[in-house]
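A reminder from the course coordinator: this example appears on the midterm review sheet, so study it carefully.

Given structure:
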């Protein structure tokens, strides 16, 4: 039987210290500059460290769980950080955490539990970089399906995942503490799309 453990963080494509990528700098009016701008800003994609969980829990409360009873506590995030079955991934921009994601690997599919990017950094490619890292590691682990749920009111997340090649596969009534429905999204990683080069 195939091991359920997450892929080792150090793969040929993913050095232990993290992956350096770039995102477009902001223009004076706060919008991303054109992608060919020479002053691209570096972001470091790396596994979360001990001590990051409090900040990630606060980001989740603010950006993902607003209006709900927070269930992504520091302890829960720390359990995922230490688990062999999960990856807690951070994106550092200008020296501080600008985004993060949590993914859990199962036998048949990986589940993207959480993803958030600080509002000031949104729409600059940080979310895409995080998901791309997780998709690459899932492929390395031989897991070719990624599933997730999002709040039915979250139009931004729906547009984001659709742009990345995810498709709606279900609708779960009352999934969020009976307060809100969830949309279930899924991507088959065996199928390469234009989103992979985006
Ligand atoms: C959803 C979220 C993670 C996206 O992160 P991001 O870094 O802003 O996304 P990216 O810049 O990588 O966007 C990639 C593509 O997604 C689409 N997209 C992202 N935000 C969008 C928006 N507000 N409206 C329409 N399309 C959007 C676009 O196609 C974009 O590509 P483009 O900018 O070249 O057009 C971010 O908006 C966020 O943290 N939201 C709050 C928390 C949340 O909803 N989390 C997800 C559910 S758990």
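Designed residues:
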């Amino acid at each position: 039987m195939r091991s359920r453990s997450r892929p080792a963080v150090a793969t040929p494509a993913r050095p232990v210290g993290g992956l350096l990528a770039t995102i477009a700098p902001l223009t004076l009016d706060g919008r991303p500059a054109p992608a060919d701008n020479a002053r691209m800003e570096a972001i470091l994609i790396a596994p979360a460290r001990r001590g990051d969980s409090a900040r990630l829990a606060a980001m989740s409360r603010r950006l993902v769980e607003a209006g709900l009873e927070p269930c992504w506590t520091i302890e829960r995030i720390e359990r995922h950080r230490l688990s062999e079955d999960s990856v807690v991934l951070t994106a550092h921009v200008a020296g501080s955490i600008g985004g993060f994601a949590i993914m859990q690997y199962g036998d048949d599919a990986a589940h993207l539990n959480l993803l958030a990017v600080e509002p000031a950094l949104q729409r600059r490619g940080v979310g895409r970089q995080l998901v791309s890292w997780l998709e690459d590691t899932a492929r390395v682990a031989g897991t070719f399906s990624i599933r997730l749920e999002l709040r039915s009111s979250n139009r931004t997340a729906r547009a984001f995942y659709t742009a990345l090649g995810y498709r709606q596969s279900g609708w779960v009534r009352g999934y969020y503490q009976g307060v809100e429905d969830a949309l279930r999204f899924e991507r088959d990683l065996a199928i390469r799309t234009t989103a992979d080069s985006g």
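Residues 39 and 154 are 32 Å apart (CA to CA). Confidence is low (pLDDT under 50) at residues 8-17.
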